[in-house]
UniProtKB/TrEMBL annotation, chain B:
Cofactor dependence: [3Fe-4S] cluster
Highest taxon of the lineage: Bacteria
Keyword Transferase among record annotations: no
Record protein name field: Ferredoxin
TM segment ranges: none
Length: 409, 64
């Protein structure tokens, strides 16, 4: 027994730091050290900013098993949870994505209806119009232009504003505060302040929707507040979550996906020259798999001892499930480091897995299908206006992507 | 093939509807999966198997 404990301690003592760095010149690939870990064995230990040494899980099958296991908790306030940054004081205002069932399910089911497949499909013509109009503006405007600012960020921001019932005129305000919240290099005070700004904003908006509900998602929440099913604070909290998650992630997929296609001209040509929705949809799945923008791992903590892959994860131990390297698991995806938009990549875990899988994934998929299926066909000569080496990547963000992408045509 | 859906486990991801729209649908009020055809014909087996494989909540059961 003693020797086992010592072996675990030794492994923890030698644990490498996490997150790990990507290799220079390989901005689309996960860190090489993650690949090494995946090849060496199913579980290992890593060291976080606070000195804790949670388990790192790298293989696809183990990640899916653990993310679907009810003994694995997403509750950020549980001791042992591997924190990405210091927990804000008080611990209140935690959204449902960081809670467990049944509370998580109760809150999540209040906002699942608008993301049902048929509801999302009904939004497609509106999204197509948004994309077409923005491309018209691009073509009529000066070049080179920053694709992030002029297209990648406006598309999902306009869509989520419409869905939630948030005035798009306030986009500078919510985009700026969202950027602070997802930047890992800001201080806890800065993050708290930005979060407070958004909570205050959504709380005011919720007041308007309670007084005068219309046909949008926030009004749906307002009706539940009036009915006593939800507190106004919880409603504002959910609004903030949906607003941030609804624009930042998709925006990064649009810009980073475009850059990845620039670097793979044969794949870009396939997409540009097709009008087959099945190939466009396949390209979306492959780019989600290949790029995996939520690159700091899903975070969990075990509530009971769990035996997996020949190891025992003890109750109270933290888990980091690095979905980016699971999407490059050669056991599941042949030649995983090759971008191939014709492969069947639908089993990827870019949206996570288990009960916490991304709520907005049907909407994100539809938006990306419209964008990837339209942008390169309408601007066939679209190309980068600078070298890859000069493009700033979001290594410091909890969501990966590019800060800017100058393009011309 | 016999198919079941556990609506308590379902998280309304809707991926079963994308994979096999003739077999699965979603409730209007909360997007929870509904079974349209509990014994789908053989030509829909691949779609149903894919639906079960990508269901994030492992809520779809299949008996051959």
């Amino acid at each position: 027994m003693t020797s086992t404990v010592n072996a675990v301690d030794e492994r923890a003592a030698g644990a490498p730091e996490f997150p790990m760095a990507r290799a220079a010149g390989c901005p689309f690939d996960p860190p090489p050290a993650l690949r090494d870990r995946q090849q060496e064995g199913p579980l290992s230990r890593v060291r976080l900013w606070d000195g804790s040494t949670p388990w790192l899980v790298t293989r696809y099958a183990d990640q899916r098993a653990l993310l679907a296991d009810p003994r694995v908790s997403a509750d950020i306030t549980r001791p042992g949870y591997p924190l990405q940054s210091p927990l804000p004081p008080g611990g209140s205002g935690v959204s449902f994505i960081l809670k467990d069932d049944p509370e998580h399910a109760r809150l999540r089911r209040m906002v699942t209806a608008p993301f049902a497949i048929k509801r999302v499909e009904a939004m497609r013509p509106g999204v197509q119009k948004i994309v077409d109009d923005l491309i018209d503006d691009l073509l009529a405007g000066p070049k080179p232009v920053d694709l992030v600012d002029a297209f990648a960020l406006p598309v999902p921001s306009l869509v989520i504003c419409q869905l939630l019932g948030v005035p798009y005129a306030d986009h500078d305000f919510f985009q700026t505060n969202s950027k602070v919240i997802i930047n890992l290099d800001v201080t806890p005070e800065q993050r708290s302040a930005a979060h407070g700004n958004l909570i205050g904003y959504l709380n005011d908006l919720m007041g308007e929707k309670i007084a005068d509900p219309v046909d949008d998602l926030l009004s749906g929440l307002a009706t539940r507040v009036t009915a006593g099913e939800l507190s106004r604070e919880e409603a504002a909290q959910m609004g903030v979550l949906l607003l941030i998650a609804g624009h930042e992630t998709t925006a990064n997929m649009i810009a980073l996906g475009t850059l990845a296609l620039f670097e793979h001209p044969d794949q870009l040509a396939l997409l540009r020259d097709t009008d087959d929705p099945a190939l466009v949809s396949s390209a979306v799945e492959e780019l989600l798999r290949y790029l995996h923008i939520t690159h700091n791992g899903r975070r969990r903590v075990a509530t009971e001892d769990i035996e997996i892959a020949g190891e025992v994860i003890r109750a109270g131990e933290g888990l980091i499930l690095a979905n980016d390297i699971a999407n490059r698991d050669p056991e599941v995806f042949a030649e995983p480091d090759r971008l191939d938009i014709r492969r069947d990549a639908r089993r990827h875990v870019a949206f996570g897995f288990g009960v916490h899988q991304c709520l907005g994934q049907p909407l994100a998929r539809m938006e990306l299908q419209v964008v990837y299926g339209t942008l390169y066909r309408r601007i066939p000569t679209l190309r980068p206006a600078t070298e890859l080496e000069r493009i700033p990547f979001k290594h410091d963000g909890s969501v990966y992507g590019v800060y800017e992408l100058p393009v011309t045509w | 093939m016999k198919v079941t859906v556990d609506q308590d486990k379902c998280v309304a991801s809707g991926q079963c509807v994308v994979a096999a729209p003739e077999v699965f649908d979603q409730r209007d009020e909360d997007g929870i999966a509904v079974l349209l055809d509990a014994e789908p014909p053989a030509e829909r087996a691949d779609g149903v198997r894919h639906a079960a494989a990508v269901c994030p909540a492992l809520a779809i059961g299949i008996q051959d």
